[in-house]
Every structure is written in C-alpha cells, then in structure tokens.
Here is the input.
Amino acid sequence: MKIGMIGLGKMGANMAERLLKGGHEVVAYDLSADALKQAASKGAETATTLAELAGKLTAPRAAWVMVPAGKPTNETIDALADLFEAGDVIIDGGNSNFKEAEGIADRLQKKGVGFVDAGTSGGVWGLTEGYCLMVGGTKEAVAVVEPALLTLAPEGGYAHVGPVGAGHFVKMVHNGIEYGMMQAYAEGFEIMQRADEFNLDLHEIASIWRYGSVVRSWLLDLAERALRPDAGFADIAPVAVDSGEGRWTALEAINRGVPAPVIANALFTRFASQDKDSFQLKMVAALRNQFGGHAVTLESGAQGMETETPTP
Here is the structure.
C-alpha cells in the first residue's frame, strides 16, 4: 500500500524504512530538510507540505502521524482532516492520551475520515525487531491500514484491541508496567551495588541472568548493555523523566479503584529523581536510553555520551 509518514524522528524514520523494506510506498513529511533527505535516500517520496503529501497519496489515503503527543499531534490531524476525504484514514501512532481519541474520531467522522489510534512499542530497535502494535478504531478504518500494520509488527505482535481509544489505553498501561519493571531491576541492582563485601560485577550478573533465569527479559538484555564497562554508565546523572504514560496509568488505577502500588511508586521515584544521587535512577535512565534512544542527562563534567546506534 501507499502511506504517508508524518514525523521522521527516531521512531518515524525507522518505521518508514521498515515499511519500504516490506514493499510499501511511503510519502514522508518532516519539518527537517535533513530528515527528508535521509528518507529519500531509503526510497521514500518526500513532501514539504501536508497538502503535497495528501496529493501524492492514492485513495483510500492513509497517513501515519508520528509527532510529539498533545498540541503537535492534534494540530497535524486537524490539518490533514482539511485535506482528506471520505474513506481516507489518519493514524495516530504517538503516546497520546486515550481520552482525546474519541473527540478526534468524532471530528474526523463528520467528513467520513477514519481514525485509528495505534499504540506503538519497540523504540529504536523496531526497525529490525518490529513494533508491537495495539490498535483501536472501527473495523473499516483498521482494514484500510492493516497491510502496513502487519509489516511494521513482528509475527504475533499486532492486534486490533478495541474501538477508538483502546489502542492508546492499552499502550498507556503497557508503559505503566514498563515503569514498574525498570524500577524493580534498578532497585535490585542497587542492593547488589551496595553489597561492598562481595565486590559484585553487576555487568556479569546482568549477563548471566539472561540465560535460564526467571527474571530474564528484553529489559534485562538492555541492562547488560547499559552496564558494559565501556557504556558510560558512570557518567549518567540519576534523572529519569516522567513522560506522561505512567502518570496517566496511576490516575486510571485510582479512578477505577485498582491497587497499583508498583506503578505508582515507580512514578513517584521519577518525580524524586532531581533531588538525590540515586543509583536506581541512573539505571532507569540508562535503560530508557538503550531501548528508546531517550536522551540521558550527564553528570557535571562528563564528556558527551552518544546514544548507541542499534545493531542486529
């Protein structure tokens, strides 16, 4: 299929490339001329305006919005709505609040334009490993874009989870769980880090736990990478940003009367990360950098630490 990709950041650019490798045609749009040039080098058509992008797509047109959540996403969707026609579909693949999805869908439906909210997980590794996709929307709208969804996801990694809003709701909870899992690893590693009498090699322990252990996971694989002697872990400041989804998950737990102490405590620990020198939060910051390319704050005086380019 032919699809527009709006936003060529660390996620959008890789998603466009994966779609191209899967045999799809991609029309790419970004405010950055360099990002457009890079997309063109991978085989994408490019557009310098949303109107140009809409004009290069074929009916039923589909465009994937992969820009920061909130105002940038909402303004982009509204601009596309003015350019799209009945039967076309707009996908929001960012970390938007699920509560906004129904209002967006209602606005688009007045023109007959479909809306799909696609919770997207995979970070900077999605290009090679695929993206887990949790999708909300009508059956008709999802069907239009399903060929692209199947290409972006690894086998078994895509589901139409419910109506509009369900995709972002499930992704929100996914990220809340992620907060808790990272925090548990971080706490455990700090306990070992403080056991001076054993002089434990934390990198070695992270490495062996990946084989046969009941706590093995992809996050543990990333912990092993973050703790490698040459990975620059010592230079990372203990600052872990609260990007929204964990907070929303905790609020939903409160609103629905669900006890969620692990997620809530992980969230509150991030709130405190600016106030103390915490090994745990160094660990969380390093893991976020490993799986998603999220920037880390460096200790004062440390040399710049580049985000490592993922390799298969």
Notes: The chain has a mean pLDDT of 92. Strands lie at 2-6, 25-29, 45-47, 62-65, 89-92, 114-121, 132-136, 158-162.
